[in-house]
Amino acid sequence: MAKIRAASDRQFSRDTEIWNNLKEAIAASSGFQRWQLESIGQLRELRLEQQVQRYLRETLETLAY
User: Fold this and answer.
1) pLDDT > 90: percent of the chain
2) What is the pLDDT of residue 1?
3) pLDDT tens-digit profile of 9-32?
4) Cα 44 to Cα 65: distance, rounded to the nearest angstrom
5) Residue 39, Cβ neighbours under 10 Å: how many?
6) Could you tell me where the DSSP H helices lie in 2-65?
7) Of 16, 23, 44, 46, which sits most exposed with the smallest number of CB within 10 A?
8) Are 48 and 23 in contact (CB under 8 A)?
9) Exposure string for 42-62, b = 16+ CB within 10 A, e = fewer
């Protein structure tokens, strides 16, 4: 059981690292920065992670049309 837990912890660590790198790359992109400027009033109280999640959701919704 300990081996499974250790493997799970390592995977979680890797996933977290990947997400953090992806989040930073998205935040540095021109599309995100433009979206951020257009939405500034709505984003003031949101953490960067929440902003990136919202940006991705809105972008995917737009692409779905």
Assistant:
1) 66
2) 66
3) 788 889 999 999 999 999 999 999
4) 28
5) 15
6) 2-28, 30-38, 40-43, 48-64
7) 44
8) yes
9) ebeeeeeeebbeebeeeeeee
Looking at residue 52, what DSSP letter applies?
H
The tokens of 55 are what?
């940006």
Q: Are residues 48 and 27 in contact, defined by beta-carbon separation less than 8 angstroms?
A: yes
Q: 26 Cβ partners below 8 Å, 6+ apart?
A: 32, 52, 55, 56
Domain count, the chain: 1
pTM of the model: 0.77
Any idea which residue has 């540095």 for tokens? 28
Half-sphere exposure of residue 9, counting CA atoms within 13 Å on the CB side?
6
pLDDT > 70 in the chain, percent = 95
Q: What are the tokens at 35?
A: 């979206």
From CA 3, how far away is CA 39, in angstroms rounded? 46
